[in-house]
């Protein structure tokens, strides 16, 4: 059973490397769950050892829980781009499994439907997930994506706002809210949403480009002088 002791970063990396080399994901998960809990792993996010931060983010994506996500957020701005990328991937992984088992299942079915272009059925699955677990932020975010694709922008805004209410650092939902505002010509609210998303996850390159374009457009609209 896992203990509450702090993990030695070097020992942690050494223990996981053989599973990475052998591409033994299930074995890695079993080993992690037998030796440590997600809170111990989350403590490694503040480690000075870059490899430990990388591997901790990877491990958290596999076994982490949403109660420790706030500890993961700072890694999104890590000076090492691989650490930041691993942190983003881990965050999405935890978000997708943060509902009840039945709600998680419905979101998985919804994302598969979305992937094959069956957007209406995707919305049905996401809505069912929300009925099963009204606190499941990712169910709202996924339904927002589906509503955006169907150009139901008011519904998309409502779902994005609910996702952010439940998960304030959900940079994906904030960016989605920005997309809705931008589509409707509400440039200032769009810019604010994009800036909030970037403040959480500075590596959203497409969002950063959009922010720069919006700032230039707003500058031209105000006084025509952007120097």
Task: Describe the secondary structure blueprint for this structure.
Blueprint (H helix, E strand, L loop, with lengths): L8 H13 L3 H11 L2 H6 L6 H14 L5 H4 L8 H16 L4 H15 L3 H14 L4 H13 L3 H14 L4 H13 L3 H14 L4 H18 L5
General description of the model:
The protein is mainly alpha-helical. It folds into 3 domains: 10-96, Leucine-rich Repeat Variant (Alpha Horseshoe), CATH 1.25.10.10; 98-166, Serine Threonine Protein Phosphatase 5, Tetratricopeptide repeat; 169-227, Serine Threonine Protein Phosphatase 5, Tetratricopeptide repeat (Alpha Horseshoe). The chain contains 13 helices and no strands. Helix 8 (119-132) runs antiparallel to helix 9 and helix 12 packs antiparallel against helix 13. InterPro entries: TPR-like_helical_dom_sf, TPR_rpt. It holds the Pfam family TPR_1. Keywords: Repeat, TPR repeat. One of its GO terms (molecular function) is Hsp90 protein binding.
Key words describing this protein structure:
Leucine-rich Repeat Variant, Serine Threonine Protein Phosphatase 5, Tetratricopeptide repeat, 3 domains, 0% strand, Hsp90 protein binding
Q: What structural class do helix, strand and pairing data support? A: mainly alpha
CATH topology name of the largest domain, in short, is Leucine-rich Repeat Variant
Q: What is the overall silhouette?
A: globular
Helix content: over 70%
Assembly type = single chain
Mean pLDDT: 94
The total domain count is 3
Q: Helix tally? A: 13
Pfam family, one: TPR_1
Keywords: Repeat, TPR repeat
Protein name: Tetratricopeptide repeat protein
GO molecular function, one term: Hsp90 protein binding
């Amino acid at each position: 059973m896992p203990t509450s002791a702090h993990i030695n970063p070097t020992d942690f990396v050494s223990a996981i490397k053989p599973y990475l080399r052998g591409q033994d994901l299930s074995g890695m998960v079993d080993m992690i769950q037998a030796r440590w809990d997600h809170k111990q792993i989350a403590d490694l996010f503040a480690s000075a050892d870059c490899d430990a931060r990388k591997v901790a983010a990877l491990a958290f994506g596999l076994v982490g829980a949403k109660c420790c996500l706030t500890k993961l957020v700072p890694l999104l701005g890590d000076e090492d781009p691989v650490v930041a990328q691993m942190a983003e991937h881990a965050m999405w992984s935890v978000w997708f499994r943060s509902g009840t088992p039945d709600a998680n299942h419905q979101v998985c079915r919804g994302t598969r439907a979305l992937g094959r272009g069956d957007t209406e059925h995707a919305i049905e699955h996401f809505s069912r997930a929300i009925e099963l677990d009204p606190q499941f932020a990712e169910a709202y975010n996924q339904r927002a994506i589906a509503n955006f694709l169907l150009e139901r922008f008011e519904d998309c805004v409502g779902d994005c706002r609910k996702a952010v209410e439940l998960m304030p650092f959900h940079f994906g939902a904030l960016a989605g809210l920005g997309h809705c505002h931008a589509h409707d010509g509400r440039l200032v609210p769009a810019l604010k949403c994009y800036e909030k998303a970037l403040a959480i996850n500075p590596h959203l390159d497409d969002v950063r480009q959009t922010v720069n374009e919006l700032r230039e457009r707003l500058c031209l609209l105000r006084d025509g002088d952007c120097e």
